[in-house]
Amino acid sequence: MSADTAAAVPRPPARTASTPVLTGAEAVVRSLDLLGVTDVFGLPGGAIMPVYDPLMDDESVRHILVRHEQGAGHAAEGYAAASGRVGVALATSGPGATNLVTAIADAYMDSVPIVCITGQVFSTLMGTDAFQEADIVGITMPITKHSFLVKRAEDIPGAIAAAFEIASTGRPGPVLVDITKDAQQAEVPFVWPPNIDLPGYRPVTKAHGKQIQAAAQLIADAKKPVLYVGGGVIRARASEELRSLAETTGAPLVTTLMARGAFPDSHPQHLGMPGMHGTVPAVLALQEADLIVALGARFDDRVTGKAALFAPHAKVVHVDIDPAEISKIRTADVPIVGDLKDVLVDLDVAFRAVSGGTAPDISEWWSFLDGLRDEFPLGYTQPTDGLMAPQYVIQRIGELTGPEGVYAAGVGQHQMWAAQFIKYERPNAWLNSGGAGTMGYSVPAAMGAKVAEPERVVWAIDGDGCFQMTNQELATCAINNIPIKVAIINNSSLGMVRQWQTLFYDGRHSHTDLNTGHGTVRIPDFVKLAEAYGCLAIRVEREEDVDAAIQTALETNDRPVVIDFVVSADAMVWPMVPQGVSNSFVQYARDHSPAFDEQED
């Protein structure tokens, strides 16, 4: 070994009289304290048990005992998405760690900053198929920003500090720290702050000036510009800067599913949500645009439809902090890598300079878009089976709760209706699983959001299918005084799958009936189930009872509330762009599309 090589080998920190000696497990807890962590969600087991012992005595970190590790992961997500702080989940090795995988993948797709700390078997047993052993670092490598395997106690503070740095900077995302049991048990001097060395990790935050100028010129020259706003605006905490740029340019704006609330729904420049279930004006604005300014958005297939036919006449300015996203799906004419909060300010200044402080005349474009808004407003058809319209229920939840509430949705029809019919006026009010589409997200995410923002009303808007995947976390909420409100939109089926079966599979509803709603055996009975979990439970089957039930939920804060809203199974999500076609073929109701002349190549 050369002298240079020897110098590069990490060595334990020098021990001084004032340096405390801690076990690796104590170092985990002390590191969380020093990083400002106040809440963690977890479930103990053999390989993480050493950490749980000092955690019991720690007065700074509140540990919330979940009933399933997936719940811990989604709760950490909800905590992070509602507050902007890093969420933390703890789990043991093997199945405890693998139960976190769904939530980790979900956080990765939606750029949610969480740190998952897992116990691992003794380092001497790794690779022997030891009891509750799983290569969680290998398993999660494709779905984390980074995964650490820690085998030495002295490396624990640095790994945890680095995990928080990586999770919360650049494009946010999940980081895993897997710590062997012998590393948790060993004693070493605890030195803080640790020396963090992250070779190659240098997120670009300041955009190139020439690219900013080029983008500003394109906006000034455009006749049909659209600001295409993605969830990156919320993660960058750049809503105010976005509003300034939008009002400076006068351009119409759309917010994706992940960006709901990034720009006020009430603002006259807001056309709504684009994509498969977006508003007709938002969908066709992108399709007809001559310039798309993509801000923290990734040209997801649910937004573009068939990518080759998306916005055929538009030039593209693409702004993202992650260079891997730019030109991944749609080639950018002006690529800009940087932090949106800074880029939006620079772009605003540059646009004012090139335009002489006067917004370009795009009145003809606005006339076309306003015509679409008048002709194709968002609405729904009243069910003919005598049951409640789910859209009405969700709309009333939003209206009676107001914009200061937090709304966490599951995945499916109720998710789309919650995105459409609740009006969002502020960022971090809308939480959902956008990229992964994870059923079971809602209840634990709402729980995490309520822990992070205890003064806010937090709703979990869930489907009867999603609710049955993670409803055990109601026990966590009841025991830990986390009074969330749960609205089960109970259509007795896997609603979105059923809708597709109705539209594309000749109405053959293969294995989508759940027998939870009207006219069924009601297994389970959600009211009895919720009461068993210590919740206030209400069933609503008539429209005239909707408001009173919501009001009761809003007035009840000593326990969780679950409302079983029994709705029609025939209700569908409209508008809709069928998968695999141009967005030009958006349907605002079944078999009804706007008159729009475009040839599909």
TrEMBL record:
Its EC number is 2.2.1.6. Pathway: Amino-acid biosynthesis; L-isoleucine biosynthesis; L-isoleucine from 2-oxobutanoate: step 1/4; Amino-acid biosynthesis; L-valine biosynthesis; L-valine from pyruvate: step 1/4. Residues 410-565 form the Thiamine pyrophosphate enzyme TPP-binding domain. Binds 1 thiamine pyrophosphate per subunit. It catalyses: 2 pyruvate + H(+) = (2S)-2-acetolactate + CO2. Its cofactor is thiamine diphosphate; Mg(2+). It comes from the Bacteria. Residues 23-137 form the Thiamine pyrophosphate enzyme N-terminal TPP-binding domain. Residues 212-347 form the Thiamine pyrophosphate enzyme central domain. It is an enzyme of class 2 (transferase). InterPro entries: Acetolactate_synth_lsu, AHAS_TPP, DHS-like_NAD/FAD-binding_dom, THDP-binding, Thiamin_PyroP_enz_cen_dom, Thiamin_PyroP_enz_TPP-bd_dom, TPP-bd_CS, TPP_enz. Keywords: Amino-acid biosynthesis, Branched-chain amino acid biosynthesis, Magnesium, Metal-binding, Thiamine pyrophosphate, Transferase. Belongs to the TPP enzyme family. This is Acetolactate synthase. It comes from Microbacterium ureisolvens. The lineage of its organism: Bacteria, Bacillati, Actinomycetota, Actinomycetes, Micrococcales.
